[in-house]
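Bumping with the actual sequence this time:
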Amino acid sequence: MLELIYPTSPAPLLRGTRRGKAAEMLPVVDESGYVRAQAPRTSFHHGGEKPLHPVVHLHIINRRGEIYLQQRGARKDLLPLRWDTAVGGHVSYGEYILEALYRESAEELGLHDFLPQGLCNYIFESDDERELVSVFAAVGEYEIRPDPDELAGGRFWTPEEIEQTIGKGILTPNFEQEYHRIKNALLALL
């Protein structure tokens, strides 16, 4: 799995950006995970240059082979109320991939005790952003508690339900593309 490689001194600000008061900073990376710059979170969505930034995804599978999906919150900037990967989020500047994965899992689902299996890394690009995605999976019977401030809800789906829903505007495009990429690896973990 890919790991971020930070410079020995703080990375410069992305050209054309300014650090705001209490702004969450995210790393700007190249395809290999080298951190080249940093920029406020607001620099990464909706148009412009679309700097490449790292994100983490966690797929949760129960022993029956069902896959947990979260329903994105109604206030999300991108794709509100669509169904998506169980956990997904940005890596903050200074964090490493696994740190971000555990932080996001705790924030979104109250999930702390799990053993993630690395599946793949890939670059996802949409009209709004460009992400270096690190994909993980965890198999087990977990107590999942979606944070109502982060999510509209969540539930387990069968692979057949997911396949029947693809292309109908219910799932996020990122999840649909990622699911096709990793579905065999997910089921092989059972």
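The tokens above came from a reply further down the thread. The first strand starts at residue 25 and ends at 29.
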